[in-house]
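We append the chain.
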Amino acid sequence: MSTLAARHPGRITGHGTDPGIADEISELLADVRARTELLIAPLSEADLHVQHDPLMSPIVWDLGHIAGFEELWLLRHLERPFTGLAALGEMPGLFNPFEHPRRERGKLVLPSAAECRTVLAEVRERALARLSRIDFDADSPLTRDGFVYRMVAQHEAQHGETILQTMQLKGGEPYRPAERIAPPTGPRLHHLTGVMVRFPGGAAEIGTNDRSAAYDNERPIQRVHLPPFEIDETPVTNAAYLEFMEDGGYRNASWWSDAGRAWLASSGVDAPKYWHRVGSEWWTRTMDRVAPVELTHPVVHVCYYEAEAFARWAGKRLPTEYEWEAAATWDPQTSTSRRFPWGEAPLTADLANVDQLSFGTAPVGAYPRNRSPIGCLGMIGDVWEWTATDFGPYPGYESFPYREYSEVFFGPEHKVLRGGSWASRSIAIRNTFRNWDLPIRRQIFSGFRCARNA
């Protein structure tokens, strides 16, 4: 398989209105909808309507937005020729995220969950009726290879992760999952701090030219030259992070950047989000489970500034996103890139801690096949990993199919995260996937690994 072919994350292929393609898409859409329903099944009407935290939407807003997004792309934009770029502003105002920032959505007059479900079902029925008439070989970049359907499915899957962030923030009666799958417990690594692997430097390919599933910010593919560097074998563990804390990590200003010190002073935090003291021990809560901090698990719910301070304390730094992707995908021995760290096999829940139903992290090393060509473990799943890179366009970037997904967020205000988390669906994560957020954010399922010059 050629290097570029290895970049395609599983195309829907075929000719014209082949019913086999339509069936595949229908199953994909049904899968993400079934998961949305599973995630909200334990919640009362009050839980669905209340704004549990200003950082997150009321969940009924998410449901209405999912329906509005699907109606916009699978109905309205398929009823007329697509010119190459659309505006998200065409979405109905109540569920337009730019008209109503998250902090204001709790004040909106929102429909009931039953009303949202009715609209979701009606939009889906109409979309599936149109699906049987779609030409997947058409010139339109929206329908070619089923792109627009994968985009809509990914969008709903991504909202599933934000719903889980909301439920983790939820006060009062904890969120109790309707279904839970235990991640593997072994084999375990005997070392929990500091082991690094080496990238020898040289050329590597970053990004993708795929237009069947990848977002615009992942394109185009580019060849970059990287100096040699070392990178942590695993994400930073709770054991390692506790060493930082016990060495005065939150008290010693020398480990923190100017922006980090300002955030630390304003926030007053002294531990990762959701950690709390029980006697002399640190405990944490993950959804409905409260227990002592698991030393073998990756640290999670830390912001960029905490990751940056830990790295400086450890005599390291955060990797750039190019270094992260090269460490995850590039095989220096063959000068080829893998589709996933382990190779070409599709991402499944037995290869990495993804797809939500573990409802928490796993011990580092619990997925031994999740190993990159240079020996990094766990670069897909468990925790999003902060990088040192500001979110911006790749050379040759073109917005598609709307500027509001990527372009409006470009700039130094947002940092790139890579790799997905336990709360990411497999359809919405890959080696080239770029997430981004403000460096102060801790409600996301975020951790990190460190790097240093070789």
Remarks:
- The radius of gyration is 22 Å.
- Residues 147-169 form the longest helix (23 residues).
